[in-house]
From TrEMBL:
Native source species: Sclerotinia nivalis
Family that this chain belongs to: Belongs to the SMP-30/CGR1 family.
Residues annotated as signal peptide: none
Requisite cofactors: Zn(2+)
Domain SMP-30/Gluconolactonase/LRE-like region, chain residue ranges per copy: 1-125
Domain of life: Eukaryota
Protein name: SMP-30/Gluconolactonase/LRE-like region domain-containing protein
Length: 160
């Protein structure tokens, strides 16, 4: 896992990852969250928004079943909505790392969520061969998401 400064200087945060997945920041931009599917863990890091420095890796949440945590998204209250590939469910994880909700889907291949208003839209992979594999699902969960943070690029995109 890497981070880039706005002049495109690359810094290594972590090496040896095999299936890196969801990544996002807390609303106050002080904590970076990252899902490593192979370890069935959402890792948390201290994050300095002014420098981009990342430190103090710690386990925030760990899946204790056979599924695989895939993509996630934050809601406006700071909860993480984590897809569990292989189990057909999305877990709502609060800011303390506790599962406080679950939505089940008719396919095991759930991959990535996104908020559209108060609806949680969830993609699925075509793998698995069941009737709903590859489908897009939407569920009104009564809460919205947050805007994505923007990358501050000093160089023009034509220079990339």
């Amino acid at each position: 896992m890497f981070r880039f400064d706005n002049d495109l200087t690359r810094h290594t945060i972590r090496e040896g990852l095999t299936i890196p997945n969801g990544i996002g920041w807390s609303a106050d931009q002080k904590t970076l969250y990252f899902t490593h599917t192979t370890e069935s863990t959402i890792w948390a890091y201290d994050y300095d928004a002014s420098t981009g420095d990342v430190s103090n890796q710690r386990a925030f949440w760990k899946l204790d079943t056979d599924g695989e945590p895939d993509g996630f998204v934050f809601d406006s209250e700071g909860n993480i909505w984590q897809c569990i590939y292989g189990e057909g469910r999305v877990l709502k994880i609060n800011t303390e790392g506790q599962v406080v909700g679950e939505i089940k889907f008719p396919t095991k291949c759930i991959t990535c969520p996104v908020f559209v208003g108060t609806e949680l839209w969830v993609t699925s992979a075509i793998a698995g061969g069941d009737e709903y594999a590859g489908a897009l699902f939407k569920v009104d969960v009564g809460i919205g998401g947050v805007r994505d943070f923007k990358f501050k690029l000093a160089k023009g995109s034509a220079e990339l």
